[in-house]
């Protein structure tokens, strides 16, 4: 009997040693194959631009391809849910937007920043209000007057119900004391395309996402819904300058499934940090007018948790007031 117990204990110790040894070997050899990067929004928007630029730059430092795929829906909850359920081996990475701190409050998924190993925050982006150039309102003040005279008639496109750009629209609606009709899309790029096509009247999204439309003369940005003007459009005033207290900001970064081995996490974090500072990445961000705002993993986790706590209070109140 004693010999049997000794044998069983010996087998368990050997198994544990083998597991630790093999895990260490796997971590040391990482990466050995292609890495998947999940982007939660449609091609063409800020999330897609940041995600693909980072993939292109970071793969040079990791030595394997990083392939980006777009998985849309439920304000990023579907993509983040897939990331959450992925094997924590470093071969699946996700771009995580501000919605990481919002989807639980929205009731879309039981997801919070604590469900992931956050790698870094890369960028922050203010919201902006943009309309067609042939619209009957040429200034923000004229837009406000029109909205008050035509309650519910202005169709405002967003990057999905409950997305940060939808919250920006709700904040604008509340601050102005008007009523909009919101039209959700699977990302900001499709909403901008709908605006260009004349199917809606306005969009709330980032300045960079309407850059080409404004430059071509087809669109007009009326106001930035943040604390300061954007370098892309320095002549466009903020809503605060015009007397309305609105400050809605998107942000984004990268994350791994919870429980990723430290050796693997460190290799990815190091490669992404080098990529963040690379000419390849910074050039694309500058061209797109995306403001870089680096935070390392622990600082990003603290920031995202603070945002989570804020939105857990703000979203039920804002959505409840509007009935949306």
Automatic annotation (TrEMBL):
Signal peptide per UniProt: none
InterPro entries named in the record: BUG (IPR005064), Bug_dom1 (IPR042100)
State the CDD domains in the record: PBP2_Bug_TTT (cd07012)
The UniProt family comment states: Belongs to the UPF0065 (bug) family.
Q: What is this protein called?
A: Tripartite tricarboxylate transporter substrate binding protein
Which source organism does the UniProt entry give? Thermatribacter velox
- What does the organism's lineage look like at the top? Bacteria, Pseudomonadati, Atribacterota, Atribacteria, Atribacterales
